[in-house]
Amino acid sequence: MPRGVSRPARAGKTGSRRLDSAPMRTLNLGLRPYAETEAAMRAYTAARTPETEDELWLVQHEPVFTQGLAGRSEHVLAAGDIPVVHTDRGGQVTYHGPGQVVAYPLVDLRRIGIYVKEYVFRIEEAVIETLWQGAGVVGHRVKGAPGIYVRLAAPHSHERLHTESLDPFRGLGKVAALGIKVSQHRAYHGVALNVAMDLAPFERINPCGYAGLRTVDLRTLGVQAAWDDMAALLAQQLQRRLQGPAAVFSRGPQ
After folding, report:
1. What is the three-class DSSP state of 151?
2. Average per-residue pLDDT in the chain?
3. Could you tell me which residues are beta bridge partners of residue 28?
4. For residue 218, is it within any domain?
5. Is 208 an annotated catalytic residue?
6. CATH number at residue 178
7. Other CB atoms within 10 Å distance of the CB of residue 28
8. Cα–Cα distances in Å, from 173 out to 3, 134, 150, 161?
9. Which of 209, 184, 36, 160 has its CA nearest to residue 110?
10. Is residue 12 included in any domain, yes or no?
11. Residue 73 resides in a domain
12. Mean pLDDT, residues 73-79
């Protein structure tokens, strides 16, 4: 497991202790190789018991392309010197590198009282609120394409997206990618928010399986934001939404 990450608690005399309102332990793992972190997530999740506390891992990864379970090799156009790692998360290929906030919530969905669809919704809501509070940027969803998108010409605009176009990504850039895995109600993997990174590697792939989809970061949008600040804000927003049954949020108008 990564240094500083404790092993999950095991059932015993404390087995009856309620964890519904326990704070989510948050760990900043620094810059880590992807494969090492994924192996640690799998081990942590496999060893969980119903009494294991949830954790949130924040990390930056060394340059890597990751393929999800549905990943198709043709979406990796020219990996070059960047390794391609096959994972057990959902989705297609994406890129991770320094300057990107990667958040891995390791949570028990049964204890929170939600299903996968609601879990994905809450993660996306956390990113949308992080963008607005931390950068004044308005994040949008695109139906059938998990993640968060921004208007390239007007990233601060609240105008509703028009989805009548045959190209649902027209005028949009992807600023956050999402890919999760749920096994026996235990979720791992997570979300990646682009803050200030080298975006060139995204041109070597079809991001998330979409040819021509533009990927952006906050710096591209004219926002100078510190990684630490955006990581702390994203952690706060995720914690608010994933703390247990009491963490219920109205979806409001879409």
Report:
1. strand
2. 86
3. 58
4. yes
5. yes
6. 3.30.930.10
7. 14
8. 35, 18, 5, 13
9. 184
10. no
11. yes
12. 90
> Which pLDDT value is given to residue 108?
96
The residue range of the domain holding 231 is 25-241
DSSP per position, 46-57: HT--TTPPPEEE
How many domains is the chain built from? 1
- Token readout for 6 is 């404790």
C-beta separation of 91 from 70 below 8 A: yes
Amino acid residing at 120: V
pLDDT at site 72: 84
Q: Strand order in 94-96's β-sheet?
A: 84-86, 64-67, 94-96
Taking every pair of Cα atoms in the chain, the longest distance, rounded to a whole number of angstroms, is: 59
- Tokens 């235990």 locate to 186
User: DSSP per residue over 20-47, as a string?
Assistant: TTPPPEEEEEEEE-HHHHHHHHHHHHHT
DSSP E strands in the chain: the ranges are 25-32, 55-61, 64-67, 84-86, 94-96, 100-108, 140-142, 145-151, 172-183, 186-194
Which single residue is written with the structure tokens 């993660």?
123
d(CA 121, CA 114): 11
Helices and strands (H and E) in the chain: how many: 4, 10
Separation CA 24–CA 31 (nearest Å):
21
**Token output for 239:** 């914690």
Tell me, yes or no, whether 10 lies in a domain: no
Catalytic-labelled residue, pool 208, 230, 231, 242: 208
Tokens of 36: 């090492």
CA distance 76 to 182: 25
Given this model, what pLDDT does residue 221 score?
97
Looking at residue 2, its pLDDT comes to: 52
- Quickly count: other Cβ atoms within 10 Å of residue 29's Cβ: 19
**Amino acid letter for position 127:** V
